[in-house]
Amino acid sequence: MTALFAISLLLIPPQDAGKLPVFEVASVRRAQGVDPENDRDKFERTPNSLTIHHATLMSCVKWAYDTLSKQVQVTGPSWIGDERYDIVAKSSAGGSESQFRLMLQALLAERFKMIFHRDKKETQVYALSVGRGGHKLRLTEEEGPPSLTPGRMSMVAKRMPMGEYASLLSGPLRSAVVDMTGLTGRYDFAVNLEPYMAGAADHPLDIAALIPEALRDQLGLKLESRKMPLDVIVIDRAEKIPTEN
Q: Rounded to an integer, what is the distance from CA 157 to the centroid of its chain?
């Protein structure tokens, strides 16, 4: 089987969206007056609706295909991480979160004419694991979604799964972070970088260099740089302007 033929088998054309559950009504529009430097994606789900505010197509794909928990990367044209959109979609029958993810997959394929394929790529990543002395995390006793409260040089996490925390770390570390802790619960913990900033006033601040030491000392977790194959969703084609509502 040639490489070209193998890739062609993995291409997901827009018409395949017909096999997925769909929203009854959906509005997809380019966001107006957005400052990408100071604006954040916002996803809100109710039993009968999904509202996405000022989100990039990349963020929508990540939510639709649950790349956070499955540790999948998304790549494609540069604009998919810059252009922002507002989406309001409704289903009178409602559905679970997994069903809404499938509905969003269908919506993205239909409105953006999005085609992609799956691949694996050898990538330099950070592996997050439990240190030799064991972790210092506390299992949460509260119900509710995960939350992260940032401070100037600190953060407090509540009800946080390690897979989601690994993904959050990829931002300041400027690299993919793979959860290899084996921890399946949700945890409450805090991390403070202040004690590791001695002499920072004399040098450019490099937060990425402080995080591994803080995680080791305060959480009993280890970050190790290594190469490993990661699953990748490669967006081959998508239209910047979505079709009319």
A: 17
| Rounded Cα–Cα distance for residues 108 and 102 (Å) | 10
Domain span at residue 117 reads: 3-121+231-237
Which tokens hold the place of 121?
């790529």
Does the CA dihedral 32-38-41-44 come out positive or negative? negative
CA distance 230 to 91: 34
Give me the helix-helix angle, 162-173 and 207-219, nearest 10°: 150
Asked whether residue 11 falls in the same domain as residue 113, the answer is yes
Residue 128 lies in a domain: no
127 domain-assigned? no
Token pair in block for residue 195 = 């004690």
Tens of pLDDT along 236-245?
Answer: 999 999 997 7
| Helical residues (DSSP H) of 85-128, grouped into ranges | 97-112
Residue corresponding to tokens 């509502």: 245
> Per the structure block, which two tokens stand in for 156?
């407090």
**pLDDT category of residue 6 using cuts at 50, 70 and 90:** very low
Cα gap 111→149, rounded to integer Å: 35
DSSP per residue, 207-241: HHHHHHHHHHHHH-EEEEEEEEEEEEEEEEE--SS
User: Does residue 26 form part of some domain?
Assistant: yes
Q: What local confidence, expressed as pLDDT, does residue 27 receive?
A: 96
**pLDDT for the residue 134:** 96
Q: Are residues 103 and 180 in the same domain?
A: no
